[in-house]
Amino acid sequence: MTPLVIGHRGARRLAVENTLESLRIALDLGADGVEFDVQLTADGELVLFHDDDLQRLANRPDAVTALAWRDLRAMTLGDGQLQTQRPAHLDEVLELLAGRNVHVNAELKVNAGDRSGGLHLADAFVRRLEQAPGGNWLISSFQQAPLAQVARAQLGRPLAALVDAQPPGDFWPLALRPAELDWPVTSVNPHVALVNAERLALWRGQGWQVWTWTVNAPAQWEYLCDVAISAIITDEPDVLLHFLRRHGKR
Description:
The chain has one domain (4-36, 104-246): Phosphatidylinositol (PI) phosphodiesterase (TIM Barrel, Alpha-Beta Barrel), CATH 3.20.20.190. 30% of the residues lie in helices and 19% in strands. It contains nine helices and ten strands. The chain has helices spanning 20-28, 55-58, 69-73, 90-97, 119-130, 144-153, 197-205, 218-226, 237-246; strands at residues 4-8, 33-40, 46-48, 88-89, 103-108, 136-141, 159-163, 187-190, 209-212, 231-234.
């Protein structure tokens, strides 16, 4: 089985993460899909951003959820020597994805200051996706509440539980045993440090796909191919694609 190649926040080695340019580059390089983070601004707009605040990418302490979209849109984001980019709105991403037969892993990123626990984010996301065309979407989160909210909306889009390398975390029990969930999960997305034969057997026994993150080392790619992982989420989709071709897996 050849794993899907998923660009982590796009192609973040080549363009600022979670921007339109980063996503576009990953897809133009031939990635099977992209992963990105979705947060809610103070005025209810859906934007792509990973961190709780703008310190790392814009040298500002502001929380993303405390800013209106018009203010966030006026900023530039930088990461090392990469060309600066503007933050991306989810609507712009939907335009970019229109007509492309690619996989989309949207992570609902619950900001530490979100008093609703991600419920407002999930509601806004559901409203937007109800108007969006179909496609190969996978909606993931580290938190149960937003995924449960999406499940109740019956969008018909598959859901994934994100499992970090260390507890605590809403889905950490999935690393040890199946969980009793009253809503459907079709995939478990573990940190690569959690992937081993025992856990793969556990997850696959539940009928789940396994998408692992964030994997940039060739030795890990080789192992993941050997164990027939469903998808590899990587910062370097172009390098992973070259690796797979060189080893006759593409």
